[in-house]
């Protein structure tokens, strides 16, 4: 069954006004009267809805649904600006894997250089990608997208998290294997966790030192060295196993 995110408060009945949603519902999917879809409002609750008037784009809300596809902890993925369209790919896949937010910042060794205008355009594109991925994966929430023009602004946000974990290549090389498991399993349901990933060249020694100063945990992601676009997927998969499948 198709799922759509609806901005605004719950309405009885509901008139769909977003042009993209209307187009997909009634032109692409060709919904007609009595067809059913799942709608998710800004409260994160899924609701079964039935088309009442195809021409006026009106749907009746039938019932609330108990489905919850969210991770037990809120995970934010923060990547140093990567090259090309890697961030788009990361945004789509981490949304499917349950990320609550996708952030990116200008790391010391980032090759990509995005100013305010480029960042705004990039953010708009990413928001559309995560919306589609959230609908496809039946999420209850659409992840936040936030791109920082200045690294200091990113660092100033670290205090809002219960735990900050840095994916550190040197930890993996040294055979460290317990930090990630320990950091995640100690968290309570609803906790906020931030994973920090470097760009293609990794995080600089200065960045590692700064992150350690604010209490970040350095953790390896297994014995193999992962690409910047692969590491966030590993981290989220590990979180899912530790907080959902093993509970």
UniProtKB/TrEMBL annotation:
User: What's its top-level EC category?
Assistant: transferase
User: What domain of life does the UniProt record list for this protein's source?
Assistant: Bacteria
- Quick one: a GO cellular component term? cytoplasm
EC number of the protein: 2.1.1.193
Q: Does the keyword Glycosyltransferase apply?
A: no
User: Ribosomal RNA small subunit methyltransferase E methyltransferase domain: which residues?
Assistant: 70-239
Q: What is the annotated localization of this protein?
A: Cytoplasm
What CDD domains does its record include?
A: RsmE-like
Matching entries from PANTHER family are given as: 16S RRNA (URACIL(1498)-N(3))-METHYLTRANSFERASE, RIBOSOMAL RNA SMALL SUBUNIT METHYLTRANSFERASE E
Function of this protein?
Answer: Specifically methylates the N3 position of the uracil ring of uridine 1498 (m3U1498) in 16S rRNA. Acts on the fully assembled 30S ribosomal subunit.
Tell me the protein's name: Ribosomal RNA small subunit methyltransferase E
Q: Which organism is it from?
A: Streptococcus milleri
Gene behind the chain: rsmE
């Amino acid at each position: 069954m198709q799922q759509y995110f609806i901005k605004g408060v719950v309405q009885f009945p509901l008139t769909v006004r977003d042009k993209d949603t209307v187009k997909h519902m009634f032109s692409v999917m060709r919904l007609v009267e009595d067809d059913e879809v799942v709608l998710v409002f800004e409260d994160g609750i899924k609701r079964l809805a039935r088309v009442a008037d195809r021409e006026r784009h009106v749907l009746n809300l039938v019932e609330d649904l108990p489905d919850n596809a969210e991770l037990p902890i809120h995970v934010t993925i923060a990547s140093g600006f990567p090259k090309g369209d890697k961030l788009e790919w990361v945004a789509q896949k981490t949304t499917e894997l349950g990320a609550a937010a996708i952030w990116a910042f200008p790391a010391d060794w980032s090759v990509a250089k995005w100013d305010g205008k480029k960042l705004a355009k990039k953010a708009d594109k990413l928001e559309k990608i995560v919306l589609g991925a959230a609908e496809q994966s039946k999420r209850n929430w659409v992840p936040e997208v936030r791109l920082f023009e200045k690294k200091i602004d990113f660092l100033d946000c670290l205090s809002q998290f219960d735990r900050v974990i840095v994916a550190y290549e040197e930890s993996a090389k040294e055979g460290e294997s317990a930090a990630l498991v320990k950091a995640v399993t100690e968290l309570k349901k609803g906790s906020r966790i931030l994973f920090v990933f470097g760009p293609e060249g990794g995080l600089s020694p200065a960045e590692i030192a700064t992150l350690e100063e604010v209490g970040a945990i350095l953790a390896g992601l297994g014995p193999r060295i992962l690409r910047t676009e692969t590491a966030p997927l590993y981290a989220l998969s590990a979180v899912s196993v530790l907080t959902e499948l093993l509970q």
